[in-house]
C-alpha cells in the first residue's frame, strides 16, 4: 500500500491553508488544496485568459522561481507528496521541489524559518499526477512548494501521519478517534464509495460523500471499521453521526474495544440507529483501549464517529 492511504495533512477540509504565494496572476493559490479533482472547460475564458482550476503564475521574465506556502491543517510526519498538473499541458512547470518547517504557533509566511528540503528539484510532466515518497522522520507544520521557473499546478497533496501537539491532549477530555489527534482507521470491511478515514475527519460532513459508505451487502454479514486511537485511554462518550445518510444509513451499530493485542470486549451493544441523525451514547466501561471497532448492520454509511475520553499516561 502506498502513502496515499494516509490522510492529506494539507487538505482544506482538514484545516489547511495556502497562506502565501509569490504570484497567482492567472489562478488562485487556494485551489491547490481543494478536495475534488481539478475541473476544466475548454471554452471558459475570463479577463485573464483560460480559466484553470489550480494555481497558475505569470510567465517569468526574470531569474528565480515561483512558490506557494501551505500551513498544514494537521501537522505531522510527511510520508509522500502528490503534485498534480491536471489540465496544464502547455503551461506546467518542468521542475518542482518542496521544503518544510515546524513552528509552535501560526505565523505570517515571512516569519517562518528553519526550512528543510524534503523533495529535491524533480522533473514534472504536463496533465498528470506525480507521486514522491518522502523519507524524513520530523514533524512539520508548513510546506513550501517551489516550481521552476513558473507555470501551473492543479492540486498539491501532502500525505502523512498526524502528530498533534501533546499540550492540548493530556489531562483534557479529547476525541480519541479524531484524525487531527493522531487516530487512524487501520482496517475496514469495505470502502466502495468513500474512505473510512472520512468518519474521523475534522468538522461535520457537508454532504454524503464526506462520510464513509459501503456497497450494498448481499450476504448475511455486516460491515465494520477499526480505529487506532490517538493513544491508550478510556472512552466515556460515543457519537455516531448518520447526517446526510437519508436512505442508506445502517440500521444498527455496535462498538468494541481492545487494549493492545488483547481480546475485543463490548463498549456499546448492538443499538438502533436513525437515518440523518446524530446519536450520543454514554459508555459504562472504564477499561483502557487502544483500538475501537465499529460494526454497522448490515451495511450503509456513517458521517462521523467521535469517541470522547481521556488519554492515560
Automatic annotation (TrEMBL):
Start and end residues of each Allantoicase domain: 15-162, 182-310
GO molecular-function term, one example from the UniProt record: allantoicase activity
Annotated keywords: Hydrolase, Purine metabolism
Top-rank taxon, per record: Bacteria
Listed GO biological process terms: allantoin catabolic process; purine nucleobase metabolic process
E.C. number(s) listed in UniProt: 3.5.3.4
Reaction catalysis annotation: allantoate + H2O = (S)-ureidoglycolate + urea
Record pathway: Nitrogen metabolism; (S)-allantoin degradation; (S)-ureidoglycolate from allantoate (aminidohydrolase route): step 1/1
PANTHER family: ALLANTOICASE, INACTIVE ALLANTOICASE-RELATED
Family according to the record: Belongs to the allantoicase family.
Protein name: Probable allantoicase
Amino acid at each position: 500500500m502506498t502513502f496515499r492511504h494516509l490522510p492529506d495533512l494539507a487538505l482544506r477540509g482538514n484545516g489547511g491553508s495556502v497562506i502565501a504565494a509569490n504570484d497567482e496572476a492567472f489562478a488562485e493559490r487556494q485551489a491547490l488544496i481543494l478536495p475534488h479533482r481539478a475541473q476544466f472547460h475548454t471554452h471558459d475564458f475570463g479577463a485573464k485568459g483560460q480559466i484553470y482550476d489550480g494555481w497558475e503564475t505569470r510567465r517569468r521574465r526574470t531569474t528565480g522561481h515561483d512558490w506557494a506556502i501551505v500551513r498544514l491543517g494537521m501537522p505531522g510526519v510527511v510520508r509522500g507528496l502528490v503534485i498534480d498538473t491536471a489540465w496544464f499541458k502547455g503551461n506546467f512547470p518542468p521542475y518542482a521541489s518542496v521544503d518544510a518547517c515546524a513552528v509552535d504557533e501560526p505565523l505570517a509566511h515571512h516569519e517562518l524559518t528553519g526550512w528543510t528540503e524534503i523533495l529535491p528539484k524533480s522533473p514534472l510532466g504536463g496533465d498528470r499526477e506525480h507521486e514522491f515518497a518522502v523519507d524524513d522522520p520530523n514533524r512539520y507544520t508548513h510546506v513550501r512548494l517551489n516550481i521552476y521557473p513558473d507555470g501551473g499546478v492543479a492540486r498539491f497533496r501532502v500525505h502523512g501521519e498526524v502528530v498533534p501537539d501533546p499540550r492540548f491532549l493530556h489531562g483534557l477530555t479529547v476525541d480519541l478517534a479524531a484524525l487531527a489527534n493522531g487516530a487512524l482507521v487501520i482496517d475496514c470491511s469495505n470502502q466502495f464509495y468513500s474512505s473510512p478515514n472520512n468518519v474521523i475527519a475534522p468538522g461535520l460532513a457537508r454532504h454524503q460523500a464526506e462520510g464513509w459508505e459501503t456497497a450494498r451487502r448481499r450476504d448475511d454479514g455486516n460491515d465494520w471499521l477499526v480505529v487506532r486511537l490517538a493513544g491508550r485511554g478510556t472512552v466515556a462518550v460515543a457519537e455516531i453521526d448518520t447526517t446526510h445518510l437519508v436512505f442508506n444509513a445502517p440500521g444498527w451499530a455496535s462498538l468494541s474495544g481492545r487494549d493492545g493485542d488483547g481480546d475485543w470486549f463490548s463498549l456499546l451493544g448492538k443499538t438502533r440507529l436513525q437515518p440523518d441523525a446524530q446519536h450520543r451514547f454514554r459508555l459504562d466501561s472504564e477499561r483502557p483501549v487502544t483500538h475501537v471497532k465499529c460494526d454497522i448492520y448490515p451495511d450503509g454509511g456513517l458521517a462521523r464517529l467521535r469517541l470522547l475520553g481521556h488519554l492515560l499516561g
